[in-house]
Design goal:
Elements (H helix, E strand, L loop, with lengths): L6 H13 L7 H31 L4 H9 L11 H6 L6 H15 L1 H4 L11 H4 L2 H16 L5 H4 L3 H17 L11 H11 L6 E4 L6 H7 L8 E6 L2 H13 L6 E4 L18 E6 L43 H10 L1 E12 L1 H4 L2 H12 L3 E6 L12 E7 L6 E6 L17 H13 L7 E5 H6 L21 H28 L3
Helix pairs in contact: 1-8, 1-10, 2-3, 2-8, 2-10, 2-13, 10-13, 11-12, 11-17
Length: 508
């Protein structure tokens, strides 16, 4: 029995493959090449492994071997396998050969992989440079990946490869600066959201801005049997492709991940063409998205103004968010997509808690409908590409209570400080989740506010209004202060006398 390939070994080969591109093109672009190649290597190795098994099982009977292979998760012809690409690594047309292989993979697996590689071009001069440089980069990439053994018989657990994929996405997110936050929620923040919504077997789980899908996978993992239905939508084409591959690498074959703008074109609808309803919803939407409603504007409308009637799903009847801040557009979309008794948790900038005008109106409406369950303040610097502290709002349909829990988890001691980025530890997550489940006031940490108090505060949800984290100063000992002042005065007299002496000596 040979040694199993470990998570660390896979991660280190992948990181080495990233070195091929580093310094030549931006990591927010080359991540797509690395992650696509990882996916191709994985399905090739799995195919190869099963081919060996069938050859042995059917004693070389070609017809039975082919029939068995045609029932595999992914079907590959020889010219679409990694080994074939590797054998062509020195070919001057290697970029084109890889593109053709990807096209073959899509065509052979059209039900599962249709369009997954449409946004990636291994022969792109504008991205990968002129032929000579491009070919040497692609050769190096194939050589790095040839060191990886991703056959199921060598890896063992299914999640190892999925977790390597997550690891790479997280590395790229921290590397990509401002752009990083757009496709990835740090894993511990995802874990927190997943535990807050606590999904159950057979739930439908939805993320309307799903990025690379890591948050959805975290939520699915809360259910030991993994018997949940996963739905997501993502606006960016490349990121949408990453999400689909991410699902397959985690053994989630029936996820429904759509490509498009969720606000102007929601793609998860029921048989009557209404918004589909979900038991659990999680999201980390883009913070304060500008021009969020542009998808509703007709052609050539210079002075476009969003109106509730323009949305066929009537999501903005409680109020239209300001055109430069889409936070409540996502919240309202999610609330309209939430099933009876369902729960959702959204990461948002603090401004949503207290900004006035139309946002104040929407907030008042949501509170009067008793949909808000909790507001949780997070530490600063948790997210890639932005230092601003965020909060989590937890909503629930058909609540039995009429108060709101506020948690301030942003203080010292509630997170681990890092050089560029802070992180939540397991104990920090546990503390938040336990406080939420007990729904109680904890000195300097949480507070259960009645609707009356919130109304008195004019529906302002700013956390410091409810959770007092003020530390009392030590009482001042006046006698000590007097003594101090006396000794300082003496000290000063000495210095002044010394100064006089110096001035005399200098004849000033």
């Amino acid at each position: 029995m040979s040694e199993k390939v470990t998570q660390e070994q896979i991660n280190s080969v992948l990181w080495q493959a990233a070195d091929t591109f580093r310094g030549k093109i931006d990591s927010s672009i080359y991540k797509d090449y690395i992650l696509t190649m990882l996916f191709v290597k994985y399905i090739s190795d799995t195919y190869k492994d099963h081919l060996e098994e069938y050859k042995e099982k059917y004693k070389g009977d070609e017809r039975r071997i082919q029939r068995a292979l045609s029932r595999e998760r992914f079907v590959l012809e020889e010219e679409a396998t990694f080994d074939y690409l590797y054998s062509k690594r020195n070919d001057p047309q290697i970029g084109e050969i890889i593109n053709k292989a990807l096209e073959k993979i899509e065509n052979e697996n059209t039900g599962k992989l249709r369009g997954v590689f449409r946004n990636i071009d291994f022969n792109s001069e504008s991205v990968l440079g002129k032929t000579k440089e491009r070919n040497s980069m692609l050769r190096q990439l194939l050589e790095d990946f040839s060191e990886l053994d991703l056959r199921p018989s060598a890896v063992g657990e299914e999640d190892v490869i999925g977790d390597s994929y997550q690891y790479m996405i997280e590395q790229f997110a921290s590397d990509a600066g401002k752009k990083g936050g757009e496709f990835f929620t740090p894993s511990m923040v995802s874990e927190l959201l997943a535990r807050l919504v606590k999904p159950e077997e057979n739930d439908r789980i939805y993320d309307p801005t799903c990025g690379s899908g890591s948050l959805l996978i975290r939520v699915a993992r809360q259910v030991p049997s993994r018997k949940v239905a996963i739905y997501g939508q993502e606006r960016n084409g490349q990121t949408h492709s990453l999400a689909i591959m991410n699902m397959y690498l985690h053994g989630i074959d029936d996820a429904d991940i759509q490509w498009g703008d969720t606000i102007s074109n929601p793609l998860h609808l029921d048989d009557d063409g209404k918004l589909m309803k979900f038991q659990r919803i999680v999201a980390n939407p883009p913070f304060s998205l500008d021009k969020w409603a542009m998808g509703f504007a007709g052609d050539g409308e210079k002075k476009f103004k969003m109106e509730p009637g323009l949305d066929p799903y009537r999501r903005f009847d409680w109020g239209v968010p300001p055109s430069s801040k889409g936070d409540y557009a996502f919240v309202q979309h999610m609330l309209h997509s939430l099933a009876e008794g369902g729960k959702m948790a959204v990461i948002l900038p603090h401004g949503v808690l207290f900004r006035g005008a139309s946002e104040g109106k929407i907030r008042k409406q949501i509170l009067e409908m008793n949909l808000l369950d909790a507001v949780i303040g997070l530490p600063e610097k948790l997210f890639y590409g932005t230092g601003i502290p965020a909060c989590i709002m937890v909503f629930q349909k058909n609540r039995k209570r009429d108060d709101v829990l506020f948690i301030d988890a942003s203080g010292e001691g509630n997170y681990e400080k890092g050089k560029n980025q802070n992180r939540l530890r397991e104990q920090d997550i546990q503390k938040i989740v336990e406080t939420y489940e007990k729904y109680e006031t904890v000195d300097k940490y949480s507070y259960v506010a009645s609707m009356g108090e919130i109304k008195e505060n004019d529906y302002n949800l700013n956390i410091p209004r409810y959770v007092d984290t003020f530390e009392e100063e030590e009482p001042v000992n006046m006698d000590e202060v007097k003594k101090n002042i006396k000794s300082i005065k003496k000290e000063l007299e000495k210095v002044e006398a010394q100064m006089e002496k110096y001035l005399e000596e200098l004849g000033l």
